[in-house]
Automatic annotation (TrEMBL):
PANTHER family reported in the protein's UniProt record: XANTHINE DEHYDROGENASE SUBUNIT C-RELATED (PTHR42659:SF2)
Organism: Alloyangia mangrovi
Record's keyword annotation contains Transmembrane: no
InterPro entries from the UniProt entry: CO_DH_flav_C (IPR005107), CO_DH_flav_C_dom_sf (IPR036683), Diverse_Substr_Oxidored (IPR051312), FAD-bd_PCMH (IPR016166), FAD-bd_PCMH-like_sf (IPR036318), FAD-bd_PCMH_sub1 (IPR016167), FAD-bd_PCMH_sub2 (IPR016169), Mopterin_DH_FAD-bd (IPR002346)
Record Gene3D superfamilies: 3.30.465.10, CO dehydrogenase flavoprotein, C-terminal domain (3.30.390.50), Uridine Diphospho-n-acetylenolpyruvylglucosamine Reductase, domain 2 (3.30.43.10)
Protein name per UniProt: Carbon monoxide dehydrogenase
Amino acid sequence: MYSFDVVRPKSVADAVAALGEEEAQALGGGQTLIPSLKQRLAAPAVLVSLASIDEIKGVSSEGGTLKIGGGTTHGTVAREVASSYPALAAMAGNIGDPAVRNRGTIGGSLANNDPAACYPAAALASGATIVTSNREIAADDFFEGLFTTALEEGEIITAVQFPIPEKAAYIKFEQPASRFALVGVFVAKFADGVRVAVTGASEDGVFRWTEAEAALSGDFSAAALDGLSVPADGLMTDLHGSAAYRAHLIGVLTKRAVAQA
């Protein structure tokens, strides 16, 4: 790596001010940024650690909405939302390994928007709202493509608000070394319809499978998906699997998620 300064603000306001400095970058759990620094793929002059900001940590639930602080670790989510949103807790408990789950944060994952990350699928399928240091952004408007979001320079995710569905499940076909999703499907059933979000498959990152949503909103059963498929065009091909293979997995995993839900 190379030399850089680290600042550890105690409040969101101080963090935003620090990020206003030239060549400053936010540091959440560091599960992506630190490896990037080691490979010299990122070169900030200042790292603004969010780890000491207590106001962006923790879990609360009120009126059918689950609120998770942006600095809350995956491990905490897995433990503390098991009774209120079991599908989200199970997903968080299967991210990476214990070291990753005890350092990585929900805000960091969403801000990074890795095309194979799990949280983007959960947020999009749940119709979540991403709360930042200066506004609220609907999940449908937040994810803009590969490692790209609606976040502006210096904007920090302070919380994520999840409407709690009637039924939900997340099924991930994981790459065994990284435990990232080769394909992951999150299905959430609400009173007014079903949302289905897919991660790990598209060249543009997480997306909603609207055709499946329409079918499942009329009949929430795996059989409702018979004959439906996602076109392979625009899906990723790499050493782990072809676009056609990923397209097949989306159908299989969506049926499994519905059955599990």
